[in-house]
Write a structure and sequence with these properties.
Membrane topology: Single-pass type I membrane protein
Shape: globular
CATH superfamily of the largest domain: MHC class I-like antigen recognition-like
Number of domains: 2
Strand content: 35-45%
Main location: membrane
CATH class of the largest domain: Alpha Beta
Pfam families: C1-set, MHC_I
Subcellular location: Early endosome membrane; Endoplasmic reticulum membrane; Golgi apparatus membrane; Late endosome membrane
Order of helices and strands: EEHHEEEEHHHEEEEEEEEEEEEE
Keywords: Disulfide bond, Glycoprotein, Immunity, Membrane, MHC I, Signal, Transmembrane, Transmembrane helix
Helix content: 25-40%
Distance between the termini: 44 Å
Number of helices: 5
Amino acid sequence: MYNSVSQLKEPRAPWMAENLEPDHWERYTQLLRGWQQAFKVELKQLQHHYNHSGFNTYQRMIGCELLDDGSTTGFLQYAYDGQDFIIFNKDTLSWIAMDNVANIIRRAWEANRHELQYQKNWLEEECIAWLKRFLEYGKDTLQRTEPPKVRVNYKETFPGITTLYCRAHGFYPPEISINWMKNGEEIVQDTNYGGILPSGDGTYQTWVSVELDSQNGDIYSCHVEHGGVHMVLPGFQDSETMLLVMKAVGFIVLAIALAGVGILAWRRRPRGKNKVIYLSTPDH
């Protein structure tokens, strides 16, 4: 990670520090310092085009993915004030502008054909090479599975109206499916989802909530899928459980990690059969 205050790129994962020489960090520190200065200049230019002053944000996201079938993808895009601004299409060697100001930038960037080809090559070759190297360095950490702890509780928000919450935390990899079902049918509308967020300890957390009329007598249940295992928790009970992934006769749960490595991302889907576990929980 690059710290713009200290202006240093430093390892966050122990396996990165163990496998990369000090000159790697120094080399990329110098590169990112240059990016930092260039960003300041570009942000001022955008503020001028938009006639903005004060506090604005300018972001760049770049990375690549190695998919389960061996194919690869890459992405490079910019955002201004949290909104997509301009996106690179490596297949057509062109930029997609989101507004009139971005269109001015697009024309300037597309005039440099050499730079367009360089970005395409970096995404398809160098990025993938680094990704494979990082996956090898961190395989013991990145290919682990930590099952979610799931808690269901409820709160009366208005007389006769109850909000049910289903929270999952402590899980890795971050790919997870969590939803509420009513009388065996998934609730699509009137459902609020929290994002999948890092917990700060190498695991992730998320939640989903739904409002219900407790006088109707409907049956609600929270369904969580992670690492090939399907968990079902009933509503209207305070509960907490931890699912242990175990080997059984004729069944193995295998989970492949989704991990962000610096600016790189790698996704693979879990393999194996789904296992459904119905969790009965004590009343509190």
